[in-house]
Amino acid sequence: MSEDQFMGNLYQRFPVTIEKGVGSHVWDVDGKEYIDCMGGYGVALVGHKNQRVNDAIKEQIDKIITVHSSLYNKTREEFLKTLIGLAPKGLTQVHLNNSGAEAIEAAMKFARKFTGKKGMVAMKGSYHGKSFGALSLTFNPKYRKPFAPLVEKVSFASYGDIESLRSVIDEDTAFVILEPIQGESGIIVAPEGFLQEVRKLCDEKGIVLIFDEIQAGLGRTGRLWACDHWNTAPDILCLAKGIAGGVPMGATLVRPDILASINKGEHSSTFGGNPISCAAGTAALKAITEDGLIENSDKMGKIFREGLEKLKEKHSMIREVRGKGLMIGIEMKFEVKDILMGLIKKGVLMLYSGRNILRILPPLVISEDDVTKVLHALDSVLTEEEEKRNVQG
């Protein structure tokens, strides 16, 4: 494909050229239709061509496209009021940026400045981005090793193990960061009680607790915030992906006393909070909270997982099904490359984590009919794979 001539070998590419999309469906340049379970790696949260988002963008374009945060803007103000009105308890301040990695970078700086400490603790299996700071908190050696040395004073605790976390904390620990549900490592759900234990430990030690809900937040798991499943709120919350309906945006929600420790000029973003993203963001947040998307995520997620559990009983290739809402992982006993290509042929786009985990992150507008079609397609592909392996064996 012609893009490869210019973009280098930076992405795992699939042989599909997407032309348009509506809801949970996309079409390639040849007119072939696909059910989109990739969702732009979770970005297409409110669905492709969401009418609220499209209308908001069109209206804002006719007003003004860029207003730096050194000036005021009513579109930005409306977005901030909407976002803070939905935020977890105590998070009443926001830094607006452009991506998940930027949201993480801001959180790192805010926590270290506020505490005056340098130590940072992340989780084994974590993924927080690929900029230098965010990469330093990302566990997988394949991402880290080529760019070492990274930011110093980072330790990793075993996810879900409070004693492991306790063992790597010391007097210089500024913050603990975790995903309530780990995405990149294969949809690993926090064990019951773990988030509450981490919250208690951070309170005892005067440590800032950061939740990365870049993938898991905003209704993805069947609750507005993934941490709501455990009735636990962080001191800083990082958001991005679908927050603006597909337009680039990131946000770092912060306790007011933490953000108050940052002086003018110590952190900023040229494009952060631009009116186009803010208009789209307000529309996306209204779609999520007013159009039944959270409820649909919960309902469709349960139907998906029930169907996948039945497939697990039928196909020995499936090792485990896990997740919440429409954030689902299917761990296989073999590599999933051929399965992904088989699904593409049957009109389904799906993600992967590592070599052997299928990852499902569809738009939250996906219908039961589409879920059923995806399950049938996966059933068919797994049957074909098993037959092929039996012949080869």
TrEMBL record:
GO MF annotations, alphabetized: identical protein binding; pyridoxal phosphate binding; transaminase activity
Protein's GO biological process: L-arginine biosynthetic process via ornithine; lysine biosynthetic process via aminoadipic acid
Cofactor note: Binds 1 pyridoxal phosphate per subunit.
PTM sites of type N6-(pyridoxal phosphate)lysine: K241
Cellular component, GO, one term: cytoplasm
Source taxon at top rank: Archaea
Subcellular location: Cytoplasm
Binding, pyridoxal 5'-phosphate: G100, A101, D212, E213, I214, Q215, T270
SUPFAM superfamilies in the cross-refs: PLP-dependent transferases
Enzyme Commission number, as recorded: 2.6.1.118, 2.6.1.124
Residues annotated to bind substrate: S269
Annotated pathway: Amino-acid biosynthesis; L-arginine biosynthesis; Amino-acid biosynthesis; L-lysine biosynthesis via AAA pathway; L-lysine from L-alpha-aminoadipate (Thermus route): step 4/5
Annotated catalysed reactions: [amino-group carrier protein]-C-terminal-gamma-(L-ornithyl)-L-glutamate + 2-oxoglutarate = [amino-group carrier protein]-C-terminal-gamma-(L-glutamyl-5-semialdehyde)-L-glutamate + L-glutamate; [amino-group carrier protein]-C-terminal-gamma-(L-lysyl)-L-glutamate + 2-oxoglutarate = [amino-group carrier protein]-C-terminal-N-(1-carboxy-5-oxopentan-1-yl)-L-glutamine + L-glutamate
Cofactor(s) needed by this chain: pyridoxal 5'-phosphate
NCBIfam families xrefs: argD (TIGR00707)
Function recorded in the entry: Involved in both the arginine and lysine biosynthetic pathways.
PANTHER family per UniProt: ACETYLORNITHINE AMINOTRANSFERASE, MITOCHONDRIAL, AMINOTRANSFERASE CLASS III
Family designation: Belongs to the class-III pyridoxal-phosphate-dependent aminotransferase family. LysJ subfamily.
Designated name of the protein: Putative [LysW]-aminoadipate semialdehyde/glutamate semialdehyde transaminase
